[in-house]
Write a structure and sequence with these properties.
The complex is a heterodimer of chains A (about 500) and B (about 375).
Chain A lengths: L12 E5 L9 H5 L5 E4 L4 E4 L9 H5 L5 E5 L12 H13 L4 E2 L14 E3 L20 E3 L8 E2 L6 E2 L7 E3 L3 E3 L9 H14 L3 E2 L16 E5 L8 H4 L4 E5 L10 E3 L6 H7 L7 E3 L9 H14 L5 E7 L4 H10 L4 E5 L8 E2 H6 L4 H14 L7 E5 L5 H10 L3 E4 L1 H6 L22 H4 L4 H25 L15 E3 L4 H7 L2 E2 L3
Helix pairs in contact in A: 4-14, 8-10, 11-14
Chain B lengths: L10 E10 L5 E2 L1 H9 L9 E6 L9 E7 L2 H14 E8 L13 E9 L14 H15 L3 E5 L4 E6 L3 H8 L5 E2 L1 E9 L12 E3 L2 E7 L4 H9 L11 H14 L4 H8 L4 H5 L3 H13 L9 E7 L2 E6 L8 E5 L2 E5 L2 H5 L7 E3 L7 E4 L6
Antiparallel strand pairs in B: 1-10, 1-16, 2-9, 3-8, 3-10, 4-6, 4-7, 5-6, 11-12, 12-13, 13-14, 14-18, 15-16, 15-17
Helix pairs in contact in B: 5-6
The chains are: A alpha/beta (about 500), B alpha+beta (about 375).
């Protein structure tokens, strides 16, 4: 059969080079890991193979003379509301290969973003707004299972606490760095995340790839993950952090497992994951020791036993249709923290169909989980951390008002260190040096600069959260948590308002 | 009713309260003079009083004060009551017509005890008498259209309505009652439906609350209480305070000062500097009762058969002054309201933000 790659010229992007500005310095040639740019020595000219461009903008960002622009391919198919170019190109691609379409990062489709359909309240006249620059404004949160009540003896005068608590983790900002495995991203990013978490008094999550020996020093700010592949899980690992997260599912790809190709398993990753170099790291879709809720309970308590009941156990699920009932079961099974990952959560690699078509918006799942746990009187028995498309501090505030204790961010954290969300993480060629373990690319991330940028992001969001809290007349985050009176919907129908448990703006 | 369907009670207000720690009872005219001094803190859309020790003849019965919109709601409330409780005595609450007090509902009072045999029917099993009565009150307020229980404690009563407090006092003939604790409220609502039930005090059992402020944390306080079976029916944020006190003190058995720590806790920076015992306690209180923290500007007086407590929000966004003379402790929004009825107090002070003023009856009294 005559092979003809029809897709080739139906490229996504165009590379525009202003020849008047280009000085043939070849920065773009060196920066582009997809080999778009090449230098023709004979004609002293840099040229581009636009078919290879993924739209990451690395070359544009680094061009010293501003000679490069990346823009969408202007070539257009005849308009058709159903058969958009994306579907055509995907079909050409699959007709050529018979393969599964792959992508990275979170759901890119224009489903409703409920964050953008909720507005916050502020104080006027009858209650004063509070200025966080002049008055205390408290963001500290304790994650962990709380009893229904405290017991105190000594009564009036010198009361003393009698109740003993399950372990709790204090966080100074309600923002944690979500799970990204060593392997999907490189050690430089992990170091940056760990140091930023340490500086800001919050937590980062190792993801399922184990913990590199040099990172054990950040244990107080570490959540270690135990996923279906059990990579890198051993006693020291489980005890290295302050919590262990059982990963059942991920918002970007609910219901399916993971696959880190053997080519990416170099010596360091092999060591950390505890698998031979060059072998594929396959995470099964389910945990093969969890086929039911009572099995989850066994694993939760196995991990609590292994950590002497000193560590919290998080259980992470993707937000799916029945999340509320599942979350209730997880709390009753002994989870200290529920991590709920919405369908916009990112990933290093996922089948496109799964990423774009499976799951539930985190805003709705969060609202229904919080409400269900309250109806059952067990909301205090676990903290609720939500993830999946948190873009800014206002999203954080809205999530907490809906009922979250804290949020996880990962895509936002990667954007802070340069990511442009080109969604090609699965190639391992990330030109920004993030989703790659190629030493030449990975060294583009300086861990100290990553640390600074990540800490700055948390710091900036923290200031904004304080301003919004103060504006609402609140001076402690716990008075916002689950306080849906502070939210109003815009352009939402009755069903949506009921699920979110909020009133429409103007009401 | 949807759980989120609530009209925010936005009000500025005046408060006054007094307690005779030796149990000496005084007539209602004293507190009326005090609250009337703060006339301008209200706008005539709500006034009310709570008085303790006023029903010595029925001291061991729950005194239910019920307001009904019409005869139908009264009949419904009474038929429910007859089923649920023994009624030792019932009567119209005595009133004096006052041209400034209009739209008067039917106002009755009932001195009752729970019928034990009703447990496990309409009511949960294994309830204490108090819990049983809470369910009686909740069921009437939620299920019987137009009927509201606005007072339900033993040997105490709330008297409230739409009007300035001095007119409300005249209407209810408060000079005919004598009590050892009195609290009073002058309301300045900005969006009232003009409903009698919306005036202060708010009560549950013998807890009564008068409140100046706006509870910005209302949304979560209410959802927290719902986890424990409390339903906020009076469409205002003040009733959450009454229910929170009932939960913390009566149900969870916390002492009054510890309950105040939950409602207006110290800041984390202060907690971090405390000695170990105190730090552990405050940390635990904040972790467990974060959803009970009352955030926003407030000064409240809450009373119960054993005492009177004044409390401010954590950064004192509303006024509260306290004074003592002999066995009497006074608390009010303004010092003038105290000096009106006690011209020469021994000590006058402005309590610090979040620091409760707690005045118990002397041991052996009450």
């Amino acid at each position: 059969m005559l092979y003809y790659d029809q897709n080739k010229n139906y490229r996504d992007f165009e590379v525009l080079r202003d020849e008047n500005k280009c000085i043939q310095c070849q920065v773009c040639v060196r920066q582009c890991s997809y080999e778009v740019h090449t230098y023709d020595e004979k004609h002293d000219e840099v040229t581009a193979d636009q078919t290879k461009c993924v739209g990451c903008h690395r070359c544009e960002a680094f061009c010293p003379t501003d000679a490069l622009k990346i823009r969408k391919n202007q070539s257009e198919f005849r308009d058709n509301a159903l058969w958009t170019p994306q579907y055509l190109k995907n079909i050409y691609k699959q007709a050529d290969t018979g393969g599964v379409l792959l992508t990275g990062m979170g759901n890119s489709y224009p489903y409703p973003v409920y964050w953008d359909k909720m507005l916050l309240d502020a104080s006027q006249v009858t209650n004063p707004s509070i200025d966080p620059l002049r008055e205390p404004m408290e963001l500290r949160t304790y994650l962990g299972a709380k009893p229904d009540a405290v017991e105190v003896h000594g009564g009036n005068g010198h009361p003393r606490l009698d109740t003993s608590f399950a372990p709790q983790i204090p966080i100074e900002y309600p923002i944690l760095f979500s799970a990204m495995s060593y392997g999907s991203i490189n050690l430089n990013i992990h170091v940056g995340l760990a140091r930023a978490a340490e500086e800001m008094g919050t937590l980062y999550n190792t993801g399922e790839g184990g913990l590199h020996p040099t990172l054990y020093q950040y244990g107080k700010n570490t959540i270690v993950q135990c996923a279906s592949g059990r990579f890198g899980v051993h006693t020291d690992y489980l005890n290295a952090g302050v919590a262990v997260e059982i990963k059942i599912g991920q918002g970007a790809k609910p219901g399916i497992g993971g696959h880190l190709p053997g080519e990416k398993i170099g010596p360091e990753i092999s060591l950390t994951r505890m698998i031979p170099e060059g072998t594929d790291a396959l995470s099964p879709a389910p945990h093969h020791d969890i086929y039911s809720i009572e099995d989850l309970r066994q694993l939760i308590y196995a991990l609590k036993e292994a950590t002497d009941y000193k560590k919290l156990v998080f259980v992470k699920i993707a937000a799916v249709h029945n999340s509320a009932a599942i979350a209730s079961g997880m709390v009753r099974a002994g989870a200290d923290v529920i991590s709920l990952d919405g369908f916009r959560g990112g990933t290093g690699a996922a089948p496109t169909m799964i990423r774009d078509n499976v799951g539930v918006p985190i805003e709705l799942a969060l609202a229904s989980v919080d409400e269900r746990l309250r109806q059952e009187g067990i909301r205090n028995r676990a903290s609720l951390v939500v993830a999946g498309g948190i873009r800014c501090s206002a999203d954080v505030v809205k999530a907490i008002a809906l009922g979250a204790d804290a949020v996880y961010i990962a895509t936002a954290a990667l954007i802070a260190v340069g990511c442009t969300v080109c969604q090609r993480c699965y190639t391992g060629k990330c030109p920004w040096g993030i989703a790659t373990n190629d030493p030449y690319l990975a060294k583009r991330i300086n861990p100290e600069i990553a640390h600074e940028k990540l800490a700055n992001l948390i710091r900036g969001w923290g200031h904004e959260i304080q301003e919004m809290l103060g504006g609402m007349g609140l001076n402690a985050l716990e008075s916002l948590r689950g306080n849906r009176e502070k939210l109003r919907g815009v352009g939402l129908n009755e069903t949506e308002l009921n699920i979110l448990g909020i009133k429409h703006a103007g009401a | 009713m949807q759980s989120w369907n609530y009209q925010k009670d936005i009000s500025g207000c005046g408060l006054s309260g007094l307690i005779n720690k030796d149990g000496t009872r005084v007539g209602g005219e004293v507190i009326v003079r005090s609250i009337a001094t703060q006339h301008d803190r209200g706008n005539g859309l709500g006034g009310g009083f709570a008085a303790y020790g006023i029903y010595p003849d029925f001291a061991d019965h729950y005194a239910l004060h019920i307001m009904c919109d019409d005869r139908a709601s009264l009949a419904a409330a009474e038929s429910f009551l007859k089923e649920a409780v023994y009624i030792a005595h019932q009567e119209r609450i005595p009133i004096r017509l006052n041209p400034k007090i209009t739209n008067v509902p039917i106002l009755n009072r009932y001195f009752v005890k729970p019928r034990a045999e009703m447990e496990g029917t309409t009511f949960d099993k294994g309830l204490s008498e108090d819990d049983f009565m809470v369910q009686v009150v909740m069921k009437i307020n939620m299920d019987i259209q137009g009927a509201f229980v606005f007072s339900s404690g033993k040997n105490m009563g709330a008297f409230k309505g739409v009007g300035y407090p001095e007119d409300i006092a005249d209407f209810y003939r408060l000079e005919d009652y004598s009590g050892y604790i009195w609290t009073a409220h002058n309301r300045f609502p900005t969006n009232t439906p003009g409903w009698w039930g919306g005036a202060h005090p708010f009560t549950i059992l013998d807890w009564s609350i008068v409140h100046n402020g706006e509870i910005s944390s209302y949304g979560i306080n209410k959802r927290y209480l719902e986890m424990f079976g409390y339903h906020c029916t009076l469409l205002t944020d003040t009733e959450v305070v009454a229910y929170l006190l009932d939960l913390l003190i009566r149900k969870h058995g916390l002492a009054v000062d510890v309950a105040c720590l939950a409602l207006a806790p110290p800041f984390w920076k202060e907690i971090d500097r405390m000695d170990e015992d105190r730090r552990k306690l405050c940390k635990a209180i904040r972790m467990v009762y974060g959803s009970a923290l009352l955030n926003g500007p407030f000064a409240i007086l809450f009373a119960y058969n054993g005492g009177l407590v004044g409390l401010n929000d954590r950064i004192k966004l509303r006024p509260l002054v306290a004074a003592t003379k002999g066995e009497t402790v006074y608390m009010a929004s303004e010092e003038s309201a105290i000096r009106e009825i006690c011209p020469d107090p021994e000590r006058v002070w402005a309590p610090k933000a979040g620091d409760p003023v707690i005045a118990h009856l002397n041991p052996g009294i009450g």
